[in-house]
Amino acid sequence: MKRLGFIGAGNMGGAILSGMLQRGCLPAEQVIVSDKAESQLSRYAKLYPGLKTTTDNRQAARESQMVLLAVKPQFLRDVLAEVRDELQGKAVVSIAAGWTQAQLNQALASTGATVLRAMPNTPALVGEGMTALCAEHTLSLEDYAFVEQIFQAVGRVVVLPERLFDGMIAVCGSSPAYLYMMLEAMGDGAVREGLPRKTAYELAAQAMLGCAKMVLETGEHPGALKDAVCSPAGTTIEAVAALERCGFRSAVLEAMAACADKSREMSK
After folding, report:
1. Are 71 and 5 in contact (CB under 8 A)?
2. Which residues pair with 67 in a beta bridge?
3. d(CA 99, CA 101)
4. In the chain, what are the domain boundaries?
5. What is the edge-to-edge ordering of all strands in the sheet holding 129-134?
């Protein structure tokens, strides 16, 4: 069993940390977390007795055998420079969008550190995350299996060649934001029809959850599942027609293209 260090305990790092500890992937005593926000550290220390916290990134790296870098992409270069000397021969996992495997390897050149790029999403907090692991990693088989176990504890895992990561970020890494927007809009529509807001969100969220499970568990094409709901001259086909008039699919495609383009830009 390895001692795992988290550098960064914001939204994404915190989601992985909480999901992993809640599901018993590692005991809290085997984890150390660093973050500049002491309020964040205090909250996690109270939630998970035995968890070690610090505001010193170097300490977290020094006391760990494997380090998970969960800082914002624009801060990662400075953090790597700060902790580089503490990563000699260690396994390093980065979840920073836009940082390629090659860039990570270059930043840690001559340290003997092995590196894996991963891209999770925030539903990891409730055990329903989706994480892509980069196929071109340099971890040992043992360390890779350990990382896979961490992310499997908080959801599903796929292994992808890095050339597909921009698309993965568009369809999964960033998509919770689009889905929350849709859920919020559906809630507003239900409130407009007279439903209490709390009930409206519950109905919309359960519908979204159920549809996702239908796709995953039946293996049916989403279009076929959509067709099965659309009775001739019924209510659903009227809603579908209204969405098409408003450019619903086109808006989704454009949003994903913008997301992927931004990811490619950040990788330069």
Report:
1. no
2. 5, 92
3. 7
4. 4-162, 173-266
5. 52-54, 31-34, 4-7, 66-69, 91-94, 114-119, 129-134, 155-160
**Which amino acid, 60?**
A
Over residues 172-213, the pLDDT tens digits come to: 999 999 999 999 999 999 999 999 999 999 999 999 999 999
The predicted pLDDT at position 1 comes to 63
Question: Is domain 4-162 classified as CATH 3.40.50.720?
Answer: yes
In the CATH hierarchy, which fold is given to the domain comprising 173-266? ProC C-terminal domain-like fold (1.10.3730)
Q: What is the pLDDT of residues 225-267, one digit of tens each?
A: 999 999 999 999 999 999 999 999 999 999 999 999 999 998 8
Assigned token pair, 199? 């009930």
Name 84's Cβ contacts closer than 8 Å, sequence gap at least 6. 107, 108, 111
Helix axes 11-22, 141-152, angle to 10 degrees: 90
CA dihedral 118, 172, 184, 227 (to 10 degrees): -160
The token pair that represents 220 in the structure block: 């049916």
Mean pLDDT in residue range 215-231: 97
The whole model's pTM is what? 0.91
Distance CA 117, CA 101 (A): 6
Q: How far apart are CA 129 and CA 68, in angstroms?
A: 17
